[in-house]
Amino acid sequence: MAELIVPRLRARVIGAGLSGLATAWCLIDLGYTVELIDAADRSGGLIETVNTPDGLVERGANAFRWNAVTERWFRTLGIEPAFPQPISRRRYIFRNGRGRQWPLSVRETLALGVQAGTQYLRGTWRARDRETVSAWSDRVLGRAATKWLISPALQGVYGVTSDRLSPRAIRRDGSRRRHGPRFVAPGAGMGEVIASLTRGLRARHATIRLGERLDALDPSIPTVVCTDVSAAASLIGPHAPALGTALRAVESQSMWSATAFFDPAESDIRGFGMLFPRPAGVKALGMLVNTDIFAGRGIRRSETWIYGDDAPCLDTARQWLAADRERVTGRKDNPRRVEISRGSATLPVYGPPVLQVRSMVASAPPWLTVAGNYLGDIGVAGLLAGAEAAATRLAVANASGGARRG
C-alpha cells in the first residue's frame, strides 16, 4: 500500500542574513517547507569571517551575547563556544591622551553619585517621553558622565552619539545571564554560525536562492521579511501601509572597520579595547584588541578600529587608522596587514521610529511578518531571539489552515 504523504505548510523568507537563516530554521521546526531568497550572492549579510595569513578578520559582529538563546543555538548547530580570555575584562575610555578604565575624576564621580541618588529618591530617574539618552543622562547622571562615560559606551554599540538615541528604543535581551561570561564566539569566527546554518538548512530541504532580487511579495505564501529596513519598507508597504510607513521613518547609518595586525609592543594596552568620546579628537568610535578577547585570532597583535561614517577610499581609510593609532599610542607603527571592511547604511538609529515599528508589527496581514535589527534588539543574540519570535508569529497567525500547502 502506498504511504500517505501529508503536504507540509509552505513559507518564504526574504533575506539570508543571520535573521533570515535563523527564521527559516525555526519555520522548519514548526512544520514548514521554506524557500529562502536573497539578492546577495552569499548568505550571512553583514556577518563574514575572512582567514588571512596573520589571523581572522571579522567584517561584521565579532561575538554573541551569551544568554539562554545563544546557548540553545550553539547547541543546536553543534558549535563549540569560545569564551573571552580573562585579560579582556579590562576596558578603557580615552581621555586626556590616555586610556582609563574609569574616565571620571573623583569630583565627577561624587557628583554622579549625588545626582543619580537624588533623582532616584525623587522617583524622577526614569526616561521621559521623547527624551534622548543624552538628555536623560545629563539630568540623572550629570554632563560629565554623559560626555565621558555614557555616550562613548553607547556609540561603541549603536554607532551614533547618545543625543540620537531613545532610552525606550534601546531594549536589551532580558534573558542574559547574571553571572559567568558575557560574550561568546565560535572558535573559527562568526562565519562558522552562518556556514552551519546554511549547511543545516540545505540538509533539512530548504530551498536557498541567492543572487535573486524580489521586488514584490506574493500574499498566497506566508512570508517573513528579514532584509534591511529600506528594502523591508518597500516590500511590506503595499500590504501593510502603516508598518511600511513606520519602517520608512527609521533612519539608518553606516559603520565600517579596519583590522590591522602589528608586532606587539610593551606599551600596548591589554584588554577588550578602548572607546573614544567625541571630544577626544579620535575619528574612530572604538578599538577592539581581537587577540586579547579570543585566543587564536592572530599570530601578532590584532586590532579592529570601528568608524561611524561612510567608508572612504582605501588610502584615506588607512590614513585615518594611522593618525588615530598614533594619537592613542604615541607611536608610528607600520602594520603587517590592514583589512578594510566596508560597511553599508543598514544599521538603524535607535530613536522613536524604532518604537513605532515595534508597535506596528501586529498590523501586518496574517501571512506577513518581519524580523530584523530595526525591531529594537541590538546585536546578533537579539537577532536570534527576534527570528524565533517572527517564526512563531507567522505560525500562530496561519494556524487556522489558511497557509498555502506545497
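Above is the first protein from milestone M3; the second protein from the same milestone is given next.
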Amino acid sequence: MLRRETARLRAVFRGALLASAATAGALGAPACTGAAGGGQDAAAPDGTTRDAGLEADDGSSEGEAGPFYPPGCAPPPAILLDAGPDAAGCIYRVSLPCGLPSFVTHVYPPNCAMDLPTCIELCTGAAFPFLSCEIANGLGCDDDAMAFVAADGEAIAVDCDKCSVMGRRPAGLARARARARSPLGAFFGNAAYLEAASVHAFAALAGELRAFGAPAELARAAGRCARDEERHTRLAGRIARRHGGEPPVARVARARSRSLEAMAIENATEGCVRETFGALTALWQARHARDPAIARAMASIARDETRHAALAWAVAAWAEPRLDAVTRGRVVATRRRAVGTLRRQAMATVPEVLVRRAGVPSAADARRMLDVLDSALWAPRLRRPGPLRKVGEQGPAARLRTR
C-alpha cells in the first residue's frame, strides 16, 4: 500500500516539476522572482526598505510601527484566530476599520492575496514575521466568488499566515514566534518549529491508527515519520541559526481522544494537501537552491516528506471509506478548502532571497505545481470517494462514534 502510494506520488511530482519548468521556459520567466516587487527588501510607502524577516535586537519587529492611518482608522493589535485547544497558532487577523489603506494599490485577482510590500505594512506586531497574507473570507473577500467585495471605506480584515507548508501541524499546537534577523533565518526558523510539531503529530497518528484497528503497516510508518521529523528539525534549525534565526519551541497540548472523522479531516488537510505540497516544494528547493548546504538538506528532507505524504494518502484510502456518506462529504469539503487556502497563499510574492538562496518556488512556479497536483491528486479524489464500510468492522476502538 505504502510503496504504491509512494511510487504514484513520485510520478506526479516528476510531472509537476517538468511542467512548471517547461512552462516557465516557454514564458521566458526567470526562476528567481515572484510577482513584481518581490525582492529581499520591499519598498515601503515612504521609499525606505524593510527586510521581510527582520527583527530588532529587542525582539520587536521592524514593521511594528506600521504606516500612518487617519484618526479612527488605525488597526487594533492583531489577534490569534486559532486560539482554542486545537489551535495551530498560525493565523493572525488584523482588523482594518476603514477598509484598505491608501497605500494598497493592488489585490491579486481572482483571490484576495496581496503582494509582499503590502503584507509588510499590514502584518505588524504579533503577526510579524509572516509568510503570506490575504483579505479574510467574509470580511472583505468572497471565497465563493473568488473576489474582493468590500465597498470603499468598509471595515475588512487581513489574515497573516506565519506557518510554512512544511510539516504536519498537530491539534493543540501552541502559538510561537521565531526570532530572526533575515528572511532565511525566519523561514527556516518557522520550518524547524513546524518539523518539531510534526513529531507530535505523527506520534499521535500512530496511536490513533492502532486504536482504530488500521493495518499495522500504517502505524509503523507513522512512527518512522516521527523519527524523520526529529532529524528534519535539527537540519532546519541549523540552517536557521546560520542565518540569524532561532526556532521557537513547539509546544503541543496533551492529545485527547478523537473520532475517526476528526482524524480523517486532519489527515486530509495536513497530509493529503499541505504535506503533499510541502514534499513537492522540498523537491523543487533541492533542485533550485543556490546555497549548497540548503540544497543538500532539502534533498534529504524531500525524500522523507514524499514518504510522509504517501502515508497520508494511504491513511485516507483506509479511513475515508469507513465513514458514512455525509461524514465523508465533510472530509472532502474540508480538503477542498485546504486546497483553496494553498492557492490563495501561492498568490503572494516570495522574497527574492528565499527564491534564489533557498530555492523556494516563486508565486508563478507554485501555482503551476498546484495545478498539476490538483488535476492529478486532489480533484480525482473528489470524484471517487470509494466504497462505504462500517466503522465497527475495524477493531475494538473503531466502535467509537465517527462524530
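Note on the second protein: Residues 21 and 27 are 10 Å apart (CA to CA).
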